[in-house]
UniProtKB/TrEMBL annotation:
This is MHD domain-containing protein. PROSITE patterns: CLAT_ADAPTOR_M_1, CLAT_ADAPTOR_M_2, MHD. Gene3D superfamilies: 3.30.450.60, Mu homology domain, subdomain B (2.60.40.1170). Its main location: membrane. It comes from Basidiobolus ranarum. Keywords: Membrane, Protein transport, Transport. Belongs to the adaptor complexes medium subunit family.
């Protein structure tokens, strides 16, 4: 199964390691670094088969989580476990970074100890782990520094549902759902969409008493091309009826993830039109942005990033909305537009640039960043929520947000 876990920083240095089936030599990390030499950490394959064994790795928040595994293990199980490790660290510390791991080394090591037993995933649910290992507080840090253990035995209220403990009581019963969608798109210079897909998450915050059994249905449940469900969801019922039936964990959790492939998109929220002219040692550019389809909602945090050639020396521009910056080191122009509605005037920026040598092109693509609140671009909508085996009717809140993922406009 899973033998060892090594967490590496951006330079390949080991921050923390955990062994479950005997100590594995650190030489596996050296071998991994040699195999991936010359690649960025994002480019490294998630599964690497080598004469020294099988490696499975993920890259999250500038850190590499590398495991050594036996040949018979399912790679997707290992990948899911690694993502659970990262998500749990975020749950405990709000973020994952080299500094966070070093500052909370004892707690991180305790979590890894509880999450796996001799190479087999054991306890991976935040509710159960928080009942054993307290989230870090100032008092906990002082006690750990003094060598006093903050581990504790479960309080006996754990139920036969591993992700939820019994005896949960709230004065006001509430459950909230956030539909968060990221739009990845590549658009050519003529405005035609080359590729477009949506990656979405349904995040929940459950504050319900007792042991409620919920069913959540959607208006349009069959739009998903791929999906991943939280273990609390009854998979068979969803496969057959496209209804989410589950006993929710207490607190925050990710209910499901999904992907929608827009093979023939008829609209995008924004339209970016770049015009670039190249001269011998410079050129000029004009970029305009129009709001096309946002269901009447304003586009927020709108920004255009224009990576330019390394020989560009200087840029002078004039936007009619927002402000721009040009980084002379990275040769990236960023135009921060802000909040725009369809009725507002069209954002435009015009400028010139000079170069130290003759240019072939000023750049290859422009990137757009934006956010639209209370809008799900896939059209996903919650239809109804029903509660069984409890006598209350909870308050239900649903919010949607669409964000740009890798939104690229080719020049």
């Amino acid at each position: 199964m899973i033998s060892s876990l090594f967490v590496l920083n951006s330079t390949g240095k080991i921050i923390i390691e955990k062994h479950w089936r005997g100590v594995v030599s650190r030489s596996v990390v050296d071998y991994y670094l040699n195999v991936t030499k010359g690649m960025s950490q994002e480019e490294a394959l998630p599964i690497i088969d080598t004469p020294q064994g099988n490696y499975v790795q993920i890259y999250r928040d500038s850190l590499t989580f590398l495991t050594t595994v036996s040949a018979e293990v399912e790679p997707l199980l290992v990948l899911e476990f690694l993502h659970r490790v990262v998500d749990l660290l975020v749950e405990y510390f709000d973020e994952v970074s080299e500094t966070v791991i070093k500052d909370n080394f004892v707690t991180v090591y305790q979590l890894l100890e509880e999450m796996m037993d001799y190479g087999y995933p054991l306890t991976t649910e935040p509710n159960a782990l928080k009942d054993i290992i307290s989230p870090p507080t100032i008092i906990n840090r002082v006690m750990n520094a003094a060598g006093v253990s903050t581990d504790r035995l479960p309080n006996g209220t754990l139920s036969n549902v591993p992700w939820r403990k019994s005896g949960v009581i709230y004065t006001n019963n509430e459950i909230y759902f956030d539909i968060v969608e990221e739009l990845d798109a590549i658009v050519d210079s003529n405005g035609s969409v080359i590729s477009c897909e949506i990656n979405g998450n349904i995040l929940s915050n459950s504050r319900l008493s007792g042991m409620p059994d919920l069913t959540l249905s959607f208006v349009n449940p069959r739009l998903f091309d791929d999906y991943s469900l939280h273990p609390c969801i009854r998979h068979g019922k969803y496969e057959n009826e496209r209804i989410l039936s589950f006993i929710p964990p207490d607190g925050h959790f990710k209910l499901m993830s999904y992907r929608v492939d827009l093979r023939h998109p008829t609209y995008l929220p924004i339209y970016v039109k770049p015009q670039i002219s190249i001269y011998n040692n410079g050129g000029k550019f004009d970029i305009s942005v129009s709001i096309r389809h946002s269901d009447g909602k304003p586009v927020e945090n709108l920004a255009i990033t224009f990576p330019m050639a390394q020989c560009i020396e200087n840029v002078s521009a004039s936007p009619n909305i927002g402000q721009y910056t040009f980084d002379r080191t990275t040769k990236v122009l960023r135009w921060d537009i802000g909040r725009v509605q369809m009725k507002d005037r069209m954002p435009m920026i015009s400028g010139t640039f000079t170069a130290s040598e003759k240019l072939g092109s000023a750049g290859s693509s422009i990137l757009a960043d934006f956010q639209i609140s209370m809008y799900a671009i896939s059209g996903l909508k919650v239809d109804s929520l029903k509660v069984f085996y409890e006598g209350y009717k909870p308050y239900k809140g649903v919010r949607s947000v669409t964000k740009s993922g890798k939104f690229q406009i080719r020049i």
